Amino acid sequence: MSIHQLHSKKNIQYDLISQFTHKNLYYTPQLQKIVLNFGIKEINLKTLVLVMTALEVISTQKPIVTKSKKSNIFLKIRQGAPVGCKLHLRKKAMHFFFYKFITKILPNIKLFEGIKIKNENAFSFSLYDLLIFPELEIQYDLFQKIPKLDISIVTTTNYFKESKVLFTGSQFFIK
Q1: Which of 4, 45, 53, 147 is the most buried (most CB within 10 A)?
Q2: Is 76 exposed, middle or buried (0-12, 13-18, 19+ CB in 10 A)?
Q3: Which CATH topology does 31-168 take?
Q4: Which residues does residue 44 pair with via DSSP β-bridges, in sequence order?
């Protein structure tokens, strides 16, 4: 059991039960998944491989290549051409990444303005400087020109107030 799982079981669930009316611990909101996504503007094999290795180094899992569903003449993209890569983190890997992100990555971001809300159960934001990750900072020359990383955190709740308590208990700043 990771430190974040233990903290969420002991402290955050107690806060949620005391503030909201939940009859059972299983109905309290929890993290469902974290989605890491890279979108590439200029598609070539070198950048695609570079982005996939960066995502694999950050998360210790193998990403999936995303392909375009439709062709677009203006963007010069054919149907079925690779346009990026994504990765879904669940269970232990999700809690490990979330704890690492809160304790090591968030304090090093210079101009972090908070998280924009997609809907009641999903929060998303983008990281432009990926050299904040210590794994990528070691190979500075290789990962210098990486596009932004989109991170989406999905919870099991349908109410904004519950998800706000869930993230503020984890020391996460929400607008």
Answers
A1: 4
A2: exposed
A3: 50s Ribosomal Protein L5; Chain: A, (3.30.1440)
A4: none
Q: Which residues of 44-73 are buried (b: 16+ CB within 10 A; e: fewer)?
A: eeebbebbbebbeebbeeebeeeebeeeee
Lowest mean pLDDT among 9-13, 84-88, 149-153: 9-13
State what percent of residues in the chain have pLDDT above 70: 73
Comparing 124 with 58, the larger pLDDT belongs to 58
Q: How far apart are CA 7 and CA 102, in angstroms?
A: 13
Q: Tell if the pTM clears 0.85, that is, is over it.
A: no
Q: Given this model, what pLDDT does residue 87 score?
A: 92
CA–CA gap between residue 8 and residue 30 (Å, rounded): 8
Q: Which of 145, 153, 147 is nearest to 36 (CA)?
A: 153
Domain ranges of the chain: 31-168
13 strand-pairing partners:
none
The predicted model gives 14-18 an average pLDDT of 66
